[in-house]
Amino acid sequence: MRALPYADPGVPDTRSRTRFLAWLARAQWRTLVVGAFFGVLWMVSQALMPWAIGHGIDGIIADDSRSTARWAAFVAGLGLIQALAGVMRHRASVANWLYSAFRVIQLVSRHAARTGPAVPRSMSTGEVVATVSSDSMHIGHAMEVTPRFAGAIVSYVVVSVIVLDTSVPLGLMVLIGVPLLVIAMGPLIRPLQERQRRQREALGDLTALGADTVAGLRVLRGIGGEKVFVSRYAERSETVRAAGVRLAGTQALLDAVLVLLPGVFLVLLTWVGARLVLSGDIEPGALVALYGYAFFLLMPVRTAGEMAFVATRAMVAAKRVLAVLAIERDVRDDGATAEGEPTPSSAEEVLVDEATGLRVRPGSLTMLVSDEPAFTAAVADRLGRLVPGNGVRLGDVPLDRLPVAEVRRRVVVSDPEPTLFTGSLRSGLDPHGRHDDAELTAAMGTASAGDVLETLRDGLDSMVEERGRSLSGGQRQRVALARVLVREPEVLVLVEPTSAVDAHTEAAIAGRLRDARAGRTTVVVTASPLMLAKADTVAWFDDGRLVATGSHDELMSTTPAYRRTVTREEDPE
């Protein structure tokens, strides 16, 4: 497959399904042209076979050995061309299928990664998975059939010319009859498309339910809810089965029509041709050729029917792909800073949240505390420009005036519920392979995750299961902390980084984090006194307002509300 040309797809056109499929075809026009060329050669060589055989039979009837030998050699040559062209056509068609399918998979995957939480919030996981696993293959199938369809059209024209030259009535039957066969299948296409859409939606719902059930399997077992979800899954499965049966019925009817109509056409063509032979208007060899054409025309008609089916399915699949691509990221990249506008030069710039008046001194370890943890988590999202309408400045430059890529490089926010991916621990900590073992081990040490390395047989090369299922909650949290520490960003924002660890480990993390991030800006959202004791500055928010700043000890002695939140005291009567 590598020998076939592979074009850069560029930017997709997502204004309509037709334009999107046209963009996909243009992105690999070379392989489509190669496939169409060999598809035409393959089909035409088959179309000429009855014509050559008919002339050979006429040579036998005329007792002309030389003519018979020439036509026999011509038939052999057509067979060789057909075999070689068939191999190349199949190779190019499979390449078209795979290239198209995997381009769609890459496109959807990259869009989902670029938009972040916008896709799972707008669409179920099952829908996205079905789009990647199923819809991409349907679109690829359409690209695979296209070269054969091109060959069917050209061969139909060639056969029509030959038959017209042999007999005008038979030629007109071919020219008019074959299009009528294709048109007759039209009424079946619309219900087929509608039933495909319903089956596709039911399958997406079932996939989503299965993914949610597997993700929450431990909880279900804890509350004894397995039977409830099994029955619900069985009910959804029955819906998918019923939709599949209805779709299969329509498809079976279409297949039956594809057999019946060409068969009727074959009978009529043979009957008319036989009468012309009896009347002396055509030679017996021409009748044999016409009979061969009648059989051959079944292939273009079937190919046309298959093209109608896969094109319909590809349109349904393209609609689902466009639904994913239509989801926009929460934070849009409006471009770089305007010309002449100052840009933050380094980590020496003050980070300011204008909504609350919070000012984070460069190089400091600042911790945020609130009586409502969701509020400080929202502040962290603003500091990292994870939400629209930022209102945060880095120095004199608003973050929303900077390219998103630059903000992500300079300001890193670690979620309170981090996700670990399947693969080696090394690739999870350093996906781009930019750090050596010493740096990775140091980051694990800062996060007090040395015990994780000790328990894993192969150390950094040990495999981590999906979502880190092989690790405890505290171990996953510490590995995620090590992952962001490895990046060494200018500004690091941590949200409850020690909520799943014991007090001893938390105290160790607090001290090591302070030393490891010395001289670089670090913001931590936490209410843990062990963490707060290591802070340079603590910002206390009450009722959504910045009320006080200072050291942990100062706020403990001067701010009763802060003391009650940190020590978890109850309000006095």
UniProtKB/TrEMBL annotation:
Annotated membrane topology: Multi-pass membrane protein
GO molecular function: ABC-type oligopeptide transporter activity; ATP binding; ATP hydrolysis activity
ABC transmembrane type-1 domain boundaries: 33-313
UniProt-annotated location(s): Cell membrane
InterPro entries: ABC1_TM_dom, ABC1_TM_sf, ABC_transporter-like_ATP-bd, ABC_transporter-like_CS, P-loop_NTPase, Type_1_exporter
Name the UniProt record assigns to this protein: ABC-type multidrug transport system fused ATPase/permease subunit
Keywords, sorted A to Z: Membrane, Transmembrane, Transmembrane helix
Native source organism of the sequence: Jiangella mangrovi
Domain ABC transporter: 331-568
Annotated Pfam families: ABC_membrane, ABC_tran
Transmembrane segments: 29-49, 69-88, 145-164, 170-189, 252-274, 286-305
Gene3D superfamilies given in the database record: ABC transporter type 1, transmembrane domain, P-loop containing nucleotide triphosphate hydrolases
Gene Ontology cellular component annotations, sorted alphabetically: plasma membrane
Chief site of localization: membrane
